[in-house]
């Protein structure tokens, strides 16, 4: 009798458990289907959610769940896939409330957040300097020149590890010069000078790959030195095919312990990075600046502009040449003649030769030429 009683109690307990589980499953199904299909809306607590850029649908569902806006992430994902909002949810900051049905949430998140809406695009050309970018930002109403320069000065190596390559104590005009990657940047209502500078530095970090770092290391260079050389190539080269040749000239001059003597370095020095004069004077070539490669051997104190990817690539993959000189022969096309010897360089310049060995071309009466016997430009 006792055994029968125990069996009956066990069966009753099992039945009750079954009933409870069945009710739970039914409740779950009802709640799941409610979230999956409901078009009802009620009052509820307002919640502000941040949807990061490039978030997946599952990421968005998880954010909504964590903020108490939905119960079932799978129901949200399934409803989205079957709705007109599929593939249309945007990143940004959105104000939702807990009484909304999921379709209402999707509608809001499919509309562009005003604060994240792109108002304009800022195009930074290759070869622009910090000061030129600052001027452009002010002209386009993004921020003042002072705000941009202050943002540049506020960044440290603790923000971007690669800035440890900038030598401490060196008389560098801006430690970020060279690192502000030329590209097109989206400007929103809330874009600040600091945001813009960080976007540019993030772009450099994205484009300066591990393979590039390895090639630089093979040449005994860090990112700062690569950008310094690339900035010269950027300001001197106009044609794609000439960039690796001009890079080779710079390497050859380094190896031969020669002055670079590139005019662009002087332009940078005498114009405070604005490049707003067309010609240099003989006095300019003697201007005492660590950026003046007519005065100081080796690389200038730092980059003389912000180079693009093509010039960075040229410095890491230069042509193998015996060229030590280059001379602009077609200003409109940007075409240079490259020479191995000083005589050939002078021939390119004025058709003269150095027959008397004084380091200057032989000149006809009345002719004159600036004594820049190692000039590249």
Describe the structure.
By secondary structure, the protein is mainly alpha-helical. It has 13 helices and six strands. The chain has helices spanning 2-37, 57-66, 73-81, 102-110, 130-139, 145-154, 193-207, 210-218, 223-236, 243-255, 263-270, 309-316, 342-350; strands at residues 46-51, 92-97, 118-123, 184-188, 325-330, 335-339. The strands form three sheets. It has a two-stranded antiparallel sheet. It is elongated and about 115 Å long. The protein starts with a helix and ends in a 27-residue tail after the last helix. Residues 352-356 and 358-377 have low confidence and may be disordered.
Give the overall average pLDDT: 86
Proportion in helices: 40-55%
Major sheet: 2 strands, antiparallel
Return Rg in Å. Answer: 33 Å
- Listing every helix as H and every strand as E from the N terminus to the C terminus, the arrangement reads HEHHEHEHHEHHHHHHEEH
Which class do the helix and strand fractions yield? mainly alpha
Percent strand: 5-15%
Which sequence of strands runs across the widest sheet? 1-2
Distance between the termini: 112 Å
Low-confidence runs (pLDDT<50, min 5 residues)? 352-356, 358-377
Number of helices: 13
Which shape, going by the Cα principal axes? elongated
DSSP strand count: 6
